[in-house]
Amino acid sequence: MKTVTREGEYPLGGGGFADIWKGQCDNQVVCLKVLRFYVEANQKKKESAVSAFCQEAMIFEIASGLAYLHSLRPVVIHGDIKGINILVDEYHNCRLADFGLAAVLETQVVKNVTSGAVRGSVHWMAPELFMSSSSVSDKRPADIYAYGCTVFEVGHILRTPYLNPSPSLTQTQIMTGHPPFSNFNDYQVILEVLKGTRPPKPTFSWFLGNVWDLVESCWHSDSGKRPCAVEIEQGLERLLSLRDEESKCVGDVPS
């Protein structure tokens, strides 16, 4: 790996255990995931409010990224979609990150890159993955379930202060304040999800009825009845167009 070099003074993003840097490998621009083996001292998080319109735009961009992955041939399954794995720049543009659990769907067989009985983050995992992950031939619906959990998180942005404040990507948590079933341990989450229990609509959130309907459709116990990523993308695109028209109408009202 002597041909790999890291560029820049600051990382482009990061997760709980690693930073994402721009780099070069054999004269090709690449992203480098560099593991951290220390804890940031006195690390504080800066909070910034985001309007409902901006939040809807953000979840649209996440859906667009997921639709792109699922449209590839062979299909790419992300496998670990959650707020902490979304990179957001200062203009609130979203990018999917952390493909450590990514899998490729070929001829109806999913080949996982990582090993283990339960892969992923339990609070974001679809019920069928708890039954027998290896027997699930198409894991796109599991990505959709996790997407619904990520939308549940949407509320405000928390940024780590040591990242470059320029328009480069920054690590975020996009959340209501808690992930789904945040007060449960992993075992309790599995039991509740398998029983068909889902988190209630947050009373303090920005969710409008149609967005919450989307979340619930992503959480359907029958994986075949969940919307596909393209359907979500198209639905949110229509919603954003409607919001844009409404804002123009409000702006046109004479004072």
Kindly report the average pLDDT value: 72
CATH class of the largest domain: Mainly Alpha
Number of separate helices: 6
The residue fraction in helices comes out at 25-40%
Count of discrete structural domains:
2
Shape: globular
| Order of strands in the sheet with most strands | 5-11-12-7-8
Describe the protein.
- The chain is an alpha+beta fold.
- The chain has 2 domains: 4-35, no CATH class; 46-249, Transferase(Phosphotransferase), domain 1 (Orthogonal Bundle).
- It contains 6 helices and 12 strands.
- The strands form 3 sheets. Strands 5-11-12-7-8 form a 5-stranded antiparallel sheet.
- The longest helix is centred in the C-terminal third of the chain and has 24 residues, at 229-252.
- It is globular.
- Mean pLDDT is 72; it is low at 36-50, 105-118 and 156-173.
Keywords for this structure?
single chain, 255 residues, alpha+beta, Transferase(Phosphotransferase), domain 1, 2 domains, four-stranded antiparallel sheet, 6 helices, globular, ATP binding, Protein kinase domain-containing protein, kinase, protein serine/threonine kinase activity, ATP-binding
Task: Summarize this structure briefly.
The chain has 255 residues and is an alpha+beta fold. The chain contains six helices and twelve strands. The chain folds into two domains: 32 residues, no CATH class; 204 residues, Transferase(Phosphotransferase) domain 1 (Transferase(Phosphotransferase), domain 1), CATH 1.10.510.10.
